[in-house]
Amino acid sequence: MDGKIKTVIIEDEQKSMLTLQTLLERYCPEIEVIGTGSNVETGLRVLEELRPELVFLDIAMPDGDAFDLLNRIGRVDFEIIFITAYNDFALKAFEFSALHYLLKPINYKELQDAVQRYEKIRPSNNIHSRLDVLNSSLKNHFDKISLPSNDGLIIVEIQDIVRFEAAGNYSTVYLSNNENIIVTKTLNQFEEILSGLYFVRIHNTHIINLRFVKRYQRGQGGTVTLNNGTELAVSRARKYEFIEGLKNLSLTMGNSI
Fold it and tell me: What CA–CA distance (Å, rounded) separates 145 from 189?
């Protein structure tokens, strides 16, 4: 068993636990399940005794939830793949935190993908910061986001992001302090994650934070100028969404644009 990923499953539904164990044995040979728990109390006990590298953790349990368990542990020194039946709102919170999750009923392909993502992210960990982002996002406070880069995960304030620019299967994130980060997510992924947060896609290659818009010059699509002087074209197909976004921001902030 040397070299395998020492893993614990904490899941209150016996059928779901057995299914997950079977799928791991069949499709994820790199995983070794060394223990299981069925609630907060047994989960806490098995984590303290076995010190796993990876934990499959159900969000909702009979005697509490995943955060009750994690808060009692203190220092979390393992990676987590959450198991959830949550709705789209909660899934958005997972995307913000760059924490892994699996939807019930568990699909073996999604399970394999989650294990592969774990192996890629394992060196950077910073699990406590990502759990803080998740906890905040689940409370509808989308103020931080975890950005996966080739150097690991970087957590930034949403308000500091000026824009995103497509770079093939990557994106460049431009921050208000003039730094930029190459991120291993596509523009399509960011467009979906940031929906409703005053970020608008204005072109196939650009998403902007409307709060940084300084001026808009009308045209077939038009041109937008940001506070830092950057000028970007607005495509004809994206013009209506962009203008509506500006109007909504104006109403929210009590200003006129």
Answer: 13
pTM of the complete model? 0.71
CA distances from 36 to 44, 53, 83, 165 (A): 10, 14, 14, 43
Rounded Cα distance between 184 and 76, Å, is 25
CATH number for domain 5-138, candidates 3.40.50.2300, 3.40.50.1820, 3.20.20.10, 3.30.1330.10: 3.40.50.2300
In whole angstroms, give the CA distance from residue 59 to residue 61. Answer: 7
Predicted confidence (pLDDT) at residue 98 exceeds the cutoff of 90: no
Sequence-distant (≥ 6) Cβ neighbours of residue 87 within 8 angstroms: none
Residue 125 binned pLDDT confidence (cut-offs 50, 70, 90)? low
Residue ranges of E strands in 63-139? 64-65, 79-84, 100-103
* Contact of 234 with 202, CB cutoff 8 Å: yes
How many other CB atoms sit within 10 Å of the CB of residue 195? Answer: 11
The rounded distance, in Å, linking the Cα atoms of 147 and 149 is: 6
Architecture of domain 144-253: Beta Barrel (2.40)
Q: Are strands 180-183 and 170-175 parallel, antiparallel or unpaired?
A: antiparallel
- How many residues are listed for the chain in this entry? 257
- DSSP code of residue 151: T
Domain with CATH 2.40.50.1020 in the chain: 144-253
- The bridge status of strand 5-10 relative to strand 31-37 is parallel
The pLDDT tens digits for 206-232 are: 999 999 999 999 988 899 999 999 999
Element spanning 222, H or E = none
* Distance, CA of 205 to CA of 105 (rounded, Å): 36
